[in-house]
Sequence to fold (133 residues):
Amino acid sequence: MALIKCPECGQDVSDKAVNCIHCGFPLSSLRTDGEVMIKISSKLQGRCKVYDMNSRRVLWEGTTGEVAVFSINEPTWVGVAWGFNADRLDKIPDACRATVKAREKWEMTMESTSMWGGMEFKLRRVDSINAGI
Ligand SMILES: [Zn+2]
Fold:
C-alpha cells in the first residue's frame, strides 16, 4: 500500500481507498487501472480478439456476440479483430479501434454509413451494455 495526496484536501490517503478518509473525495475516479467491457455484435461471425494495438498483445479472446472483459492499467489503444481476420491486426478497420479507459463500457455495433445501404462495424462508448445487439 502506498500513500497518495488527496487532490481535494491535500492529506495523505491510501492509494487503495475508494474515498478519502478525511474529506470523502471519490479517489476511485482517479484510478487508471480496472476493467473494460466491450459488447461484440452478434451480427459478426466467428472468433473474436481484442488487441492492445501498441504492444500487439491479445487482451481478450472469444466469440462474437459475447461481452469482452479485460483489465488495463492505463488508457489503452485497442482494436477488435474477428472472423477470418481474427489474427490480423493490420486488417482491423479504423472504426474498430479506440482508446479505452478503465471502467468504460463499449459496444461494437453495425451501423449504416449511407442511405444506399453501406454498413460498417464501429466501436462506440456507451453508458451501459445492451444485451440485445
Ligand atoms: Zn481528501
Remarks:
- The chain has no helices and ten strands.
- The two ends are 41 Å apart (CA to CA).
- The pocket of zinc ion is lined by residues 6, 8-9, 11, 20, 22-23, 25 (CB under 6 Å).
- The first strand starts at residue 3 and ends at 5.
